[in-house]
Records
---
Amino acid sequence: MATIRFTVNGKTRSVETEPERPLLDVLREDLGLTGTKYGCGEGQCRACTVLMDGKAIVSCVTPAHMAQGRRIVTIEGLADGGRLHPVQQAFLDEDAMQCGYCTPGMIMRTVALLDSYPRPADAQIIEGLNGSLCRCCGYPRVLAAVKRAAGAAQQEAKEAGHVK
Amino acid sequence: MSSDPEARVPERYELREAAARHFTVNRREFLETVGAGLLIVVTAPSASGQGGAAGGTLEARLHIGEDGSIVLLTGKVEEGQGPRTELAMAAAEELRVPLDRVKVVMADTDLSPNDGITAGSRTTPGTVPVVRKAAAAARELLILVSSRQLNLARGPLEVRDGTVTAEGRRFSYADLAKSAELAAAYREALPPDTVLTPARNWQVLGTPHARLDGRSIVTGSHRYPSDIVRPGMLYGSVLRAPSYGAALMSVDLSWAQKMPGVRVVRDGDFVGFAAQTSFAARKAVEAASAAAIWKTVEQPSGDVLFEYLKEHAREDAQRPRGSARGSVEGGLKQAARRLKATYKVAYVQHAPMEPRAAVAEWKDGLLTVWTGTSNPFGVREQLAQAFSLGQDRVHVIVPDMGGGFGGKHTGEVAIEAARLAKEPGRPVSLRWTRAEEFMWAYFRPAALIEVEAGLDAGNSIVAWDFANYNSGAAALDTPYRISNTRVRFLESESPLRQGSYRCLAATANNFAREAFTDELAEAAGRDPLEFRLAHLDNERIKNVLTAAAERFRWSERRKKRRPGIGVGLACGTEKNSVVAACVEIEIDPADETPRLVEIVEAFECGAILNPSNLKSQVEGCIMMGLGPVLREEIRFRDGRLTNGTFAEYRVPRFCDVPKMEVLLLDRKDLEPVGAGETPIIVVAPAVANAVFDATGQRVRSMPLRAARG
């Protein structure tokens, strides 16, 4: 057993756990953050995506000890109080979900994507999201949501005076 | 009785039938749950999908609280096809209230009426009308009681925004629920001819609405079956056989007794563990696997699959499946030309994003299970059987779940979780891993299809002989006008456990029929579009086919010849909806596989209820349907899967999304029918026909192995 200290959604947390245990299990079972989903346990579907120090990772194959001292953001940490993150809002506005199980992972990937490419070209969106699986195959609407979110992020930045 | 034969005949490959018996809701318990008020109880023989409530039973369908709250009750399950929103829209429409006034309680066997299994596209034609009827009854009751209360003639009164307003006075659903007149009015009975709102007057139905609980999904707060947490809950894991049919000879579990906090359950062949974390439970299973000795049995392997299906085929003389017109032998004899071909379709898996999951809790001899299944009442029956309980001792709740596509009709995970939880009274959450889901769920049946047809001197199809081995009878018959036909479905022994799947055998049957129809058109020297239209009487199919072809500019694009690029089309009907698609594909010169470049798909399912969700369903069907066309194929050898991971079993991804246009034909003059399945059936043949156009070679197997045949 090891003590893992890390920041989750802005709060400092400390967890006693086997260091090899998947971060996904720690988030879900120890911290009650069930918004992050298990899809395959092999890092192949990205349903379990969270941000670690701002980078998207697959938490199902990330051992807990890797989170030591890191900043983790999960789907529960995106909204600012009652105000949804622009990416969450875009998915809602585009009705970009069917069963919705892959949606948290898709949203986290999109947040990371737009952080790297605020104005992504179509090819960049596809490359950035291609490993994220949706078995309802609602890909067209997710693409629309990502484009909408990119537009909204631009608009927000413009209003805040960050973009000419 | 519904005119749809599928409503009466359960699908061949339902692994379990839905609960045959029906228990009405316990009104007292229900009122304790949702509070006092008005409970609308309707007689609803057609509410069930497959094998639900028997005719004549009373079902609590709608509750109106004294605070005006409205709760709609349904035994249907939300797994992504949109019934929650659709049924709420249906109720809001007839109640004349805004959509956000309606709360929907789904798939809770203690509260919901038994609407049967959520399958076969039956929610729209079966459950929507019953919900509308109940809601319209409540609306009529509101008018009746308010006319008495306000001392006004009933005729001119109407409900707007949940309220009757007349001469400056108002009477709402909350007033109705509190009314002293209610009991008397209710006993007086509702008008037997309650009028449903015609489609052209719809205010809520027919307009696009996003998924009602979308906010809980984008914030991660919605609790799927695998997210349910109960006080004191443990996490489970189950020992699995290394191959199908293997029997457990021995396993030493003495070490496990020493593992702190690990519960060991051994019950015959069942060996499972429950622990404080799923990691600890999985570790226990790994250790048990290493200590287990199994006796394996010989299993047929994938390389002999189609020969095996043919050898083991049998026609049920008692209950032959299929139909015939004229004389197929005679037709073939008089044909000027005869063609023959064999088509093969591999096993594929649903692989829903959320694998099977259940939380089981025992309390005072009562068993409660939260689980992901399309068949809540059927699973309640399975649990009752498994633990020798009365069904009234079992409570099944299905939270909106992470996908099914026909793959979650069974209750194995619910039974396993309940077994693990049975010991010393702590709830257990059991979530299958992806590897377990691949190996131990079930598959869409593989298909072997043999077809022979004849063309007469005028190049019309004069005979059609079609036999499906193993995969099923859905969409077995041809929609084309042919005087002499014989279509048959022959059961076989499936090497793999097989069950339902989105549109089931309609995909395989339509693949073979539409691909072979293209071969006949080619032999007749006619354009595939003209050839089909010349053989079609079904105006609805003609409409979608024409719409898709015009939008795609079929005639113009078909004449263009470009190396490595081809166009194809296909059409079909199933579950009383109609669909057609035109596609353009290109052949990847590196590996000779096709890539879908563009698709125009036209779909018509009567009056459209929720255009937003319908578009999602058609797009989802196109993309999901593309998987088994391009790559999806379950491979197996010696009782094991050889590609049971997402790394090796390649499902569609973002990079596969083509240029896509969906044409939705709204027929307000026709009753709405289901739409979550049929749009899938034209993808495979349209792509196969386009591959021929590009390469000059017919590909008669799914997945398509282009050019190499």
Note: Residues 85 and 212 of chain B are 6 Å apart (CA to CA).
---
Amino acid sequence: MTPARSSGAVLLAVDNISLSFGGVKALTGITFDVREREIRAIIGPNGAGKSSMLNVINGVYHPQQGTITFRGEVRRDMNTHRSAAQGIARTFQNIALFKGMSVLDNILTGRNLKMHATLIEQAIYLGRARREELENRRKVEEVIDFLEIQHIRKTPVGKLPYGLQKRVELARALAAEPILLLLDEPMAGMNIEEKQDMCRFVLDVNEQFGTTIVLIEHDMGVVMDISDRVIVLDYGKKIGDGTPDEVRGNQAVIDAYLGVAN
Amino acid sequence: MFYREAGQFKTSYQADVAIFPIRQDRIAIALIAVTAFIAIPLLATPYVFTGILIPFLILSLAAIGLNVLTGYAGQLSLGTAAFMAVGAFASYNFMLRVPGMPILLAFIGGGTIAALVGILFGLPSLRIRGFYLAVATLAAQFFILWFLTKVGWVTNYSSSGVITAQPIVILGYAFTTPPAKYLLVLSIVTLMALAAKNMARGNVGRSWMAVRDMDVAAEVIGIRPMRAKLLAFAVSSFYCGVAGALFAYAYLGTVEPEAFNLDLSFRILFMVIIGGMGTILGSFLGSAFVTLLPVLLSVTVRYLDSNLNLHIAESAISNLELMVFGGLIIFFLIVEPHGLARLWQIAKEKLRLWPFPH
Amino acid sequence: MQFFFEVLIGGLLSGVMYSLVALGFVLIYKASGVFNFAQGAMVFLAALTYVGLLEQGLPALAALPATLAVMVVLALVIERVVLRPLVNQPQITLFMATIGLTFFIEGLAQIVWGANVRGLDLGLQDEPIQWVTDTTGMVVSKFDLVAAGVAAILVTLLALFFNRTRIGRALRAVADDHQAALAVGIPLQQIWAIVWGVAGAIALVAGLLWGARNGVQYALTFVALKALPVLILGGFESIPGAIVGGLIIGASEKLAEVYLGPFVGGGIEGWFPYVLALLFLLIRPEGLFGEKIIRRI
């Protein structure tokens, strides 16, 4: 049973979004909203367009149709830089960490928009560059403490096991102090213990920092437990939208998962 | 046993991010600095300065430049020598045409012109990646050398295409002796290496490495790959430009565009690969290696000749060099792709445990 | 007008020579995903070995297979010493390994055979074909025409090989993903040895033709560098692309030298193909025949 969480005004709204690649329609006429401080799950069979939806939200893909409203601004599409600057952070299905750098450096890259020292200042290092470096290091260490990855902070990311890499990716996203966090299958490939840890982290992020979360997840137990509302996609179309209980009883959703021919 | 971190606790983030966090490292660097700045000028012969130390330092600077572009930012470049040429000839023209130009400013000017040219030839990197980009840098290499040869204004209409670098005079003091030139080059290279290290471990360095490792992800977290790449080209070319100016003024004396040919570009690439891509230390190690190897080879050949009567032709030496370099590149790529710098790191780690095995 | 055609045809034919070198690149890239920077050095080595053997007194009919044998042995050694240890490393690592290979082969070739410039006589003269001059007044070289014919035959054979045979299919699989190919039981090592051997044979043909044209000297390795713009235009994986790219580069290079050169003092040939390729890349990063790369995130 999800505890009643006070959700606020609409933070993100997508209206009639359609996306196609060549002849392939990835998304058709998708409309939904996400309220502040809620945890919104997107579920659906493989290939339903879930990752594409996240990509549209943070500007990696540009939809052919529809609008995106974020923090009150209505837009035809987002672009990656602007979405990052406005407080959207995300993790990826296939881990998108910088394999050549350490955990600490990876997480520090998440704070790049908060650092303003110019090139020359950085070359000299004394003064603003040093201050920023140390301040941001402090912030990053907070994130590291929060996600309990102190012991691996100097390890090159490429050497870490999959579960820890996913946690580092989450850390990088959190380091940016986002308003909206997009998580693409954060628990994929994890065992029960790791999943429980990840759930705990996601809930903590939402409760402690008030971050709005949109997450794609396949594990129904997780989805039902932690999300406030759920969207169901199938073949690029929305076939369900509501609380976990509502969606669970929806016949169309059951059919989609059981593979009944439409 | 001696090289231990035990007992050295870092109580502030500042101590943790320092360039030389371990006390033994700091002592070592102090010793190296004393040797480099004081002992060597007093003890070394002119040949050691002009034949070994000065080219080693200058090419280390160029290697740092290439490392910034290829090692940190991941943009493969085969045109390093061309940017050195731009720096050399630009500095020459600044000294020639601007009355009373201080030579250090001319070097900076040369570097800046090289940086601008670097940005121009770096623009394709926004659309092209990998070996395609390498071929684009070849365009820079061939075009720039052709330009410097054909456009008479650049060489002051010298009929042979050779320019003679003006003497280096700073604040009335003429840097004409080998030790003087050595100290000047050493100072410049040390300062610029420090600056490069600061950039590499700062925000800009991280954005370079992010673009190198996965530029799509970098974009998503707010880094602008375009800006990062062009900045890498600019900084890299600046370093190569200053190195080129020093090459002309403090090493060769008289120089023609052909001195900055494709061969030199490859040589510097070797330094970066063998020394360790994406490290400042690697630039120095690689340069030392590539500079010393021919010396080592000719000494060995001479030894074999006089002591064992094994005669090897002079021409064979340069070919042996090629073979050794080529072979070593392959060796390093297989065994330790991160080069000598990594091997050095591993050695230090082993040293930390010595005399214990683990 | 006639002069224009003369220059054009001369350029096209010399472009065919570039294509020959590019074919070796394409073959190796298509089959192993490796961009073999050492192709030029292989051309040099092949040509040098051939004339070296001739100098040692071997008759041409024996020197040819002997050189071919050398190239095959080289391929085997390369596969064992360079490629096998670097299986599944990123492309850029393999590329740099081939740069190292280039210098190794160049040094080796010159140590073994010496660095003197030599001529190579294939019995083909670089003289104009009489009836062409008589009918059209243009000068077209007999040599160039034969070279073009040879290249045409090679291309057809290779295209058939890749698209129609089982081995060809296996090669394309290998180029895509080394480990996956290994996993389905494709004998990677054998295939690579075969491919590099064939590339060596192509290098031999290119070496003989180039050597006969320009003499066998160190500068031959730079000719191979010219193959790079060819590959950019034609795409790294396309055999017809290598031909078309070669033709375009050869023709444009000569035309530029003749028509634009005088305005800027000449010597354009050295960089024009590269700048052309560069400009082309800005419009179409995958080349004329290359495949668009879509990256998923």
Note: The first helix of chain A runs from residue 50 to 57.
